[in-house]
Amino acid sequence: MTLQLLNTLRDQNPIVFNIANFVTVQDVANGLNALGASPIMSAEVQEAESMVQIAGAVCINMGTLTTQQVNQMAVVGKLANQYHKPVVLDPVAVGAVPYRKQVALDLLDKFSVDVIRGNAGEIAALADIDWQAKGIDAGAGQGDVVEIAKRCAQQFNCCVILSGPTDVITDGKRVAKVANGTPLFQLHVGSGDLLSSIVAAFAAVSPTAIYDAAQVACVVLAGAGELVASQMTAARPATFAIDLIDRLSLVSVQEIQAIAKLN
Ligand SMILES: Nc1ncnc2c1ncn2[C@@H]1O[C@H](COP(=O)(O)OP(=O)(O)OP(=O)(O)O)[C@@H](O)[C@H]1O
Ligand SMILES: Cc1ncsc1CCO
Ligand SMILES: [Mg+2]
User: Fold this and answer.
1) Relative to the CA of 190, which ligand 2 atom is closest?
2) From CA 48, how far away is CA 33, in angstroms rounded?
3) CATH topology of domain 5-259
4) Residue 213: which residues within 8 A CB-CB, separation 6 or more?
5) Contact indicator for 58, 80 with CB cutoff of 8 Å
6) Is the distance from the beta carbon of residue 64 to the nearest atom of ligand 2 less than 6 Å?
7) How do the domains of the chain map onto residue ranges?
């Protein structure tokens, strides 16, 4: 795993095609842009093939799905496989809403994904493990998050990022953990959505080493948030969100390296 991938990303400025949710779309676009990627959002199935062709990677976020959008997701996912573009799936709230879990399972049946990024409640649901998920949040489940993430990765033959106070990254065999971050992430809705899209950005510049790309994405976002929090004297969620975007644009490989808690 090399943090130099951050400089590669900034040099290459990869296009990341997002099927976004309408709650956090602007945060995701600005966060990607600040980091050094080139975001594009589309909700139109007629342009799916062009979008996939111009993109370096695709991020499919289930946050505010509609029947029309689920159809678009299936078309885009299949095209991404056909054009060998990495795909990240963010299965928002699949632990809390049975319909969403069924949609996610149907999508995972129709095309292969490179990374599933979700919180503990979402990853446990996909791995068929009991967990008390709560809406879009991880909730209060109990269990071994490493085992849950590994089981999900093995089931869907992909990398899994189970995010939270410690991010667990696994390809089903290898496991890495990122212990950076700040509880302020939980006070800003969409931190997870941004992480998923940042994973896609790093996958775009490291398509043959997705497991490495996933780790770099986790440590860069959590590290940038930690640096912002270290300069705040009180918890200010709105200020945090703005400062995070600034920090994503300014942060250097050396600054992340100095604080990285990755093992
Ligand atoms: N308590 C915490 N301490 C440190 N970092 C955290 C904490 N909670 C979340 N994070 C960080 O927040 C980011 C988003 O992860 P999280 O698991 O909260 O996603 P999510 O539940 O999908 O969020 P959202 O629904 O708001 O998009 C990750 O980078 C993770 O490391
Ligand atoms: C609040 C919310 N509701 C659906 S998606 C979303 C943003 C977090 O994913
Ligand atoms: Mg989420």
Assistant:
1) 8
2) 21
3) UDP-N-acetylmuramoyl-L-alanine:D-glutamate ligase (3.40.1190)
4) 5, 199, 202, 203, 205, 206
5) yes
6) yes
7) 5-259
pLDDT 10s digit of each residue in the chain, 263 long? 699 999 999 999 999 999 999 999 999 999 999 999 999 999 999 999 999 999 999 999 999 999 999 999 999 999 999 999 999 999 999 999 999 999 999 999 999 999 999 999 999 999 999 998 999 999 998 899 999 999 999 999 999 999 999 999 999 999 999 999 999 999 999 999 999 999 999 999 999 999 999 999 999 999 999 999 999 999 999 999 999 999 999 999 999 999 999 99
Cα separation of 62 and 83, whole Å? 22
Ligand 1 and 221: CB distance under 6 A:
yes
Q: Which two tokens stand for residue 106?
A: 């149907």
